[in-house]
Protein 1
Amino acid sequence: MPRILLALSIAVLGIGAAAAQTPLKIGVITTLSGPGGYLGADIRDAIELAIELEGGKLGGWPVQTLVEDDGLKPGQGKQIADRFLKSEKIKLFTGIVFSNVAGATVPDILDAGGIYISPNAGPSNFAGKECHRNYYVVSWQNDTLHESAGQNATDLGYKRAFILAPNYQAGKDALAGFKRYFKGEIAGEVYTRLDQTDFAAEMAQARAAAPDVVFQFHPGGLGIAFQRQYQQAGLLGVIPMVVAAPSMDSVILKAVGDAALGINVSSHWNSDFDNPANKRFVAEWTKKYNRTPTSYASQGYDTALAIAAALKATQGKVDDTEAFRTAMLKADFQTVRGAFKFGPNQHPIQDWWALKVEKDEQGALALKTKGKVLSNHSDFYASQCKL
């Protein structure tokens, strides 16, 4: 081969190899500040852990995450998404924690032809008639979290419940979900503010209602404040509490200590789940971050594994959204939670478990898995989705 042609061939091959190794950008819009900041931090850190364990890749293809804090502000989430779409030419997004941010941000991503894969927020409006072919939820649909709590409260024999949640989409979904599966009477129903830190009035209302059980949904720092004040109000040990995972995770447990003892929790995941994927995840997470993973971390990790499985099948490409969708819906990966598949609205079908805050052999507080609450559970809105 003439030297000029040989040089050109080598140059072309070099350009092709370089292009093949150009990392796929993934936009991670999440909450990293304020009372809910650790939720987004755990999701971000879990995604980064999965990428690190694969040597900077997902599904064999190099990826680069661009992470920004939405500050729990819907407008800020929209601005970040717009910049990622236009300036960074990002096609694949994940990371949003709160449903109000998702409600403002996700439609813009989808309208621009992007793909969104949720590691947390699963608002009801996106699960039914407003479902979308490029929208996937790896965590849960909001209601199902609290349907499991309603079923758990029923299984535990409670007859009258006082229920509380913040006044935003996820809070409304929480109370709707709990009531859907709780077979007893609702003794009182209260919506709090999403930025509320003083719950004295709500504690008085709960005491006056004299229920068998209190169900509350307050994630992150809100949950820490609520739980501490529940103890200070003298309600701990007087009125039992049933919650879903966001209201009693390892961070809240560490912050409130004995104020959490005996609380019944329901979740799709726990750190003590005995399967190979979870054992590896918990071990690697603890080694890298020196803290106990939360359910948010488990969801971020599973989201990264889901993306990896899809990218492996599409050879790292996301431009053909139908090819990506075919690969994504196979859910060809081992989740840390166990059984998992996507339902017709591209939300999970999965098992739910009863947990309880107890002391372990060393006397430390821990969430212990007690038994199954719901099997192969889908969400209420799936039948309304026509894809």
Protein 2
Amino acid sequence: MSQAMDTAQLLFRARTGKKNEDLFDTVESYLTALLQNGQIITYKVAKVRTGYLVIASLPESDALADRFANTWVRKRHRELAAIGVARPKVTYLGADPESRAPCGCRKQPFLILFTTFLNAEPPLRCGACFGPIALYKVPFTTAVDAHRDVLQWEETYQAMDSLFIGTGPGERFAHAQLSRFDSELSADGRELARNLERRVRVPVYYYLSKYFGRSDQAERKRKCPSCGKSWLRKEPLHRIFDFQCQRCRLLSNVAFDVRYSPRPGGSR
């Protein structure tokens, strides 16, 4: 297994005389199926003389293996074959130096739904090593045999995180969505975590990201916002999560402006 996400080149060769729009639509459908199955993370398509060239980020070096394909990937591949396009030629370009190594644990004691606006890895992390877990390795939570619900939550979360980081008029709204356990974003994420937990049969935690705080002392007195019980850990988990409620499956952090403030007691 690679030490980080892999970057691969996929070349789809066009059959002579085939309409480009037919080929592109079929290639795009195939790539979408791979994306929704978790076999690729992101991709870019370029038109080249011989067909279409795709640069894709893979969660693991063997992510494109047939054994990971779901119903939709196999169906879209058959559609490619039907228009005379052979299996794409795959060239591995190397590891993404800015990505985290995928989980290599034999068993995960618990999982964490986690992403940020900067993250390109899968939004599911191992609770033991904090390595990303390829989505094709976990059961689907919808009847359509795709991870659309996970990817939709991830897209919305990253949009909120980007809105918050960008500051301006939406900052407070975005922070509330990220930090409150009862926000619309958190409600969707917690429901998704519960659905995943029923299928993987290990705890799945949801992360409440908090930036604004009054003081370090006040932050460490915080109780679980869902059940009101103590949830401060003795030591931070993965140097991020200062709070953990096993009952409510929630994680959080000491407010970042308190943690990183140069002034005693925090900045708010």
